[in-house]
Specification:
Elements lengths: L1 E4 H11 L6 H12 L6 E4 L1 H12 L3 H10 L7 H13 L1
Antiparallel strand pairs: 1-2
Helix pairs in contact: 1-2, 1-3, 2-5, 3-4, 4-5
Length: about 90
């Protein structure tokens, strides 16, 4: 699985339930919550992250998979994931 922090996992889960209009909205929403959540380590299977992410970003499923699959370290932060998604968005 892909290692994530509890903070990141909770952000992803919360974002998955939000009616977001764009990747920018998603990124802003993650950042708005990040400071109040914990930083404990957990491991979650990559496809579960994909499912949570894509609930929030709709048709971005393929882009999310491509970008997250490229992040094969266990210690990538939510910022790294967001930056990869923003890079994808700007291309």
């Amino acid at each position: 699985g892909l290692g994530v922090h509890v903070m990141e996992l909770r952000c992803l889960y919360n974002m998955s339930k939000a009616p977001l209009q764009s990747m920018q909205d998603w990124c802003a929403a993650v950042h708005s919550q990040a400071s109040v959540l914990s930083d404990l380590d957990v491991t979650l299977w990559a496809d579960e992250i994909f499912v949570m992410l894509t609930r929030g970003v709709g048709d971005r499923y393929d882009a999310v998979i491509v970008q997250l699959a490229a992040l094969d370290d266990d210690k990538h932060s939510i910022d790294a994931i967001i930056q990869a998604l923003v890079d994808q968005e700007s291309q």
